[in-house]
Amino acid sequence: ERCARGLRCLPRQGEEKPLHALLHGTAVCLSEKSYREQAKAERESREHEEPTTSEMTEETYPPKAYRPKHGRLSELKAEALKKDRRKKLTLAKFVGMAENTAHPRVVIPELRQEFELGPCRRHMEASLQELKSSQRMVPRAVHLPNCDRKGFYKRKQCKPSRGRKRGLCWCVDKYGMKLPGTDYLSGDLQCHAFDSSNVE
């Protein structure tokens, strides 16, 4: 049931679960002005009561002003957006510094885990970001690397398959450099046959 024009659906004063009351139809239709006046009167009556021993402290703090729940949600949303913007800005600054090798690398604590990833994982993250930002998606133009758990390249790297035809494969070291003597082959390339002297 909707409230009449000029009225708002608001929880009752002192409601233990105001959002629950709004969602389950136990709220009342009031003008916002009268609701604020009731809240103010209730606060004043609480101020005049004798404080109990648990409420007595060395310092007394003024009571918090009443804020409707929807105002609190928008504050939380604004704070989350600010935090996200700051993170993107620091990430952009860090990527700019990493590209310019003349500057010493500075690791930002909140992004430390992201940059402790290996080169393969960073390559994959960059490819995924490029996919997200591109207008047209061309799946065969994108190469997602084959990474191990630590974020380094697995020895065997392959392009995507085309239908039933397997993609071309080649062997790399753990930093992604193509190993000499490995040609592009389709399918059954055995990279573990290369000794560790070629890989490291």
Automatic annotation (TrEMBL):
Top-level division of the source organism's lineage: Eukaryota
Residues in the signal sequence: none
One of the GO biological process terms: regulation of insulin-like growth factor receptor signaling pathway
PROSITE patterns (UniProt xref): IGFBP_N_2, THYROGLOBULIN_1_1, THYROGLOBULIN_1_2
Compartments (UniProt record): Secreted
Entry annotated with the keyword Ribosomal protein: no
Protein source organism: Corythaeola cristata
Biased composition (Basic and acidic residues): 34-51
The name this protein goes by in its record: Insulin-like growth factor-binding protein 5
Annotated Gene Ontology cellular component terms: extracellular space
